Amino acid sequence: MAVRVRIAPSPTGFLHIGTARTALFNWLFARHEGGEFRLRIENTDTSREVAEAVDQIQDSLRWLGLDWDGEHTFQLDRMDDCRKVAEQLVADGKAYSDDGAIRFRMPNEGSTAWDDVVRGRVEVANETIEDVVLVRSDGRPTYNFASPMEDVWDGITHVIRGDDHISNTPKQLNIIRAVGAEVPVYAHAPMLFGTDGKKLSKRHGAQAVEEFREAGYLPETMLNFLALLGWAPDGETTIMSRDELIERFSLERVSPSPSQFDYAKLDWMNGVYIRELPLEDFAHRLVLWLGENGYEWDAELVARTAPLVQEKIAKLSDYPGFAGFFFGDVEPGAADLDGGGPMLAAAEETLASLEPFEAEAIEAALRAAADGLGLKPRQAFQPLRIAVTGSRVSPGLFESMELLGRDVTLSRIRAAAAVAA
Ligand code: GLU
Fold first, then answer.
1. How far apart are CA 390 and CA 328, in angstroms?
2. Mean per-residue pLDDT over the chain, rounded
3. What is the band of 420 on the pLDDT scale with cuts at 50, 70, 90?
4. pTM for the structure as a whole
5. Active-site residue, 376 included
6. 352 in a domain, yes or no?
7. Considering the domain boundaries, does residue 84 fall inside one?
8. Which CA distances in Å does 347 have to 73, 382, 414?
């Protein structure tokens, strides 16, 4: 039988990174097995907020490249069916009314057990499982009733979710058995923790997929990084393409121990992916990211600066700070230019008539000028860098000058010389 899995987010806001990791495990499993991945929204109303959250969730899944099969479904649409099943369970003596609510009659003796693909055999004494409410007195079915019923109706073969749901599983299992349906396979993946061992939260950094996108991470980085939160194909491989992840993913290699979300490793990995992009693709991503984040910068100029920054930035969001001097004036501070006067004057003179105004020739001319003043190149180039780029850290100085052109370069050097003097 082909596998069918689902992600069932509650539409309460942005897609949380932990839910995205769970979605990814489901998706990888489905794609590896040639099965289906469904998107099921656990809504309790149809407000505008819900509609917006659904858009957000779908945008984030699409951005990550996690395509779902068929139309997404809404839990709310199945409330009537849930109530009918609850009434039948009452008629069968498997549930009972209690203050207007309907409660499920859990077995009192023995235990409920399942073979969790991640955690192994899990066994819970039935006396510890309460008679869960199926339908509240106001007629609304509960999560612990609606969710397993949807799993049954959707033909879900494997429930892959966070291990914060592990205490719900014996309840859901008994409900599924009571309606005479087949119990799916369960796999509870570990929750995400920060490197300090505490549950991942806002204090650690970005939480929503959307925030990572805004922070300039590439979707392929996120996919690779999230896949390794609790899963590894072996002890070594870290960089894996989407196809390789699909090919190698298995639930058996998901580890039950808490997975650490290391933001520094994420930055490192994003740098690797940025450097691996073909230049044109990298330029294209920069242009898109800038557009999405409110920068109206000339796309052609962005493309021309791309080779100067590709090796040097870890996130697309580093670009404005790093390369913004190509798109607007700089204001170097006097303190940073201190002592740079003679070199600035020498550079202005030598660059004014230099032909061709190209990186290699610029470098040779400026080295000669530094030499003439008895300055070491590093010492000599720092005020020039600050004059032209406004910063101590920048793309290659000579390449930047060539790109800016002679007029802009000279006017910036002149302006800095006036400040330095
Ligand atoms: N709405 C639940 C969650 O996001 C779904 C739990 C489940 O997969 O059963 O955690």
1. 11
2. 96
3. confident
4. 0.94
5. no
6. yes
7. yes
8. 67, 12, 10
Do 163 and 62 have their domain in common? Answer: no
Contacts of 38 (CB under 8 A, 6+ apart): 4, 5, 6, 7, 68, 69, 70, 72, 73, 154, 156
List phi, psi (to 5°) of 153.
Answer: -65, -35
pLDDT tens figures, 165-200: 999 999 999 999 999 999 999 999 999 999 999 999
The secondary structure element, H or E, covering residue 101 is strand 101-104
90 and 226 co-located in one domain:
no
Cα-to-centroid distance, 380 and ligand 1 (Å): 60
Which domain does 397 fall in, by range? 334-420
Question: At residue 421, does pLDDT exceed 80?
Answer: no
Is 180 found in the same domain as 109?
Answer: yes
Q: Pocket around ligand 1: residues whose beta carbon is below 6 Å from it?
A: 8-10, 19, 42, 147, 161, 165
Using the predicted structure, report yes or no on whether residue 1 has a pLDDT greater than 80: no
Separation CA 10–CA 292 (nearest Å)? 26
Q: What is the pLDDT of residues 69-79, one digit of tens each?
A: 999 999 999 99
> Is residue 53 located within the same domain as residue 136?
no
Based on the domain organization, do 12 and 155 belong to the same domain?
Answer: no
Q: What percent of the chain has pLDDT over 70?
A: 100
Q: Which ligand 1 atom is at minimum distance from the Cα of 7?
A: 8
Indicate if 44 and 178 belong to the same structural domain.
no
311 shares a domain with 413: no
* Interval 251-271: pLDDT, tens: 999 999 989 999 999 999 999
Residue 212 inside a domain? The answer is yes
Atom of ligand 1 lying closest to residue 8 CA? 5
Q: If you measure from the C-alpha of residue 65 to the centroid of ligand 1, how many angstroms do you get, rounded to a whole number?
A: 21
How many A from CA of 206 to the centre of ligand 1? 21
Number of domains in the chain: 4
272 in a domain, yes or no? Answer: no
pLDDT tens per residue across span 331-350: 998 888 989 999 999 999 99
Nearest CA among 17, 20, 10 for reference residue 54: 10
